[in-house]
Amino acid sequence: MAEVIIVESKDAAGALVAEEIAALVAAKPTAVLGLATGSTPLPVYRALAERRDSMDLSKITGFALDEYVGLPVEHPESYRSVINREVVEPLGLDPDRIHVPNGSLETIEHAGADYEAAIEAAGGIDLQILGIGTTGHIGFNEPGSSFASRTRVKTLTEQTRRDNARFFDSEDDVPMHCITQGLGTIHRARHLVLLAFGEGKAPAIAGAVEGPVTASLPGSALQLHERATVIVDEAAASQLKNADYYRHSYANKPTWQGL
Ligand code: F6R
User: Fold this and answer.
1) For ligand 1, is residue 87 a contact (CB within 6 Å)?
2) Structure confidence by residue, pLDDT tens digits, 194-244
3) Is 118 exposed, middle or buried (0-12, 13-18, 19+ CB in 10 A)?
4) In ligand 1, which atom is closest to the CA atom of 131?
5) What residue's CA is closest to ligand 1, atom 15?
6) How far apart are CA 36 and CA 31, in angstroms?
7) At 203, which CATH number?
8) From atom 2 of ligand 1, which residue's Cα is the shortest distance away?
9) Which domain holds residue 243?
């Protein structure tokens, strides 16, 4: 099962993950990071930006999880723009080393295979940051996605388009299609770190961590991964039956173990 860590705030979660990334990069300067977009990972990127002077991030490579299809890359809400704004610029990364799936319609037929090849050429992802949608999606793998899936085009659910309407002028402006790393792609990352905050994420977290492993709740794929860490605040943890055990186990975690 995933290790579950219940923290008191988003900032505490951000600091924990930033510390783990700093240790990873110190041990492996060419580390490959999997980058989520959306609001959840922002505390991680903020915490990393605060400590960027003490880290050498010049040789890391990054791979975003997903991108909207057909949204011009210059659009402020394209995930390329979001990654540039929230990650590349604040962390002073080399933009050429930070990849985002190509959602352009002209090349969409082979964009998934191209992305898989780029991840493989980089040596695979060492640490993948994940958020979870209210539908239980990770990346944009909506319910029903195959556990074996690789990067490909998916249709967003109406629920996800409603959830993401806050980034656009209206729900109608949220693209219908996306290109996303598959559950099989995510599974190959060496360490998965999923974050979730707020009561709205509580059912998805309970299902992902303690429910049956099912394609109907893609986040439950974490239960099949050999190294998955779930970091949640009290509100997102509120439907976990074994919360006391997770608290007990984290309080007694051997210090040599890291995250
Ligand atoms: C984003 C992504 C999605 C989000 C999820 C949660 O790259 O792949 O799975 O992590 O939709 O979004 P937020 O964090 O905005 O609640």
Assistant:
1) no
2) 999 999 999 999 999 999 999 999 999 999 999 999 999 999 999 999 999
3) middle
4) 10
5) 38
6) 16
7) 3.40.50.1360
8) 139
9) 3-257
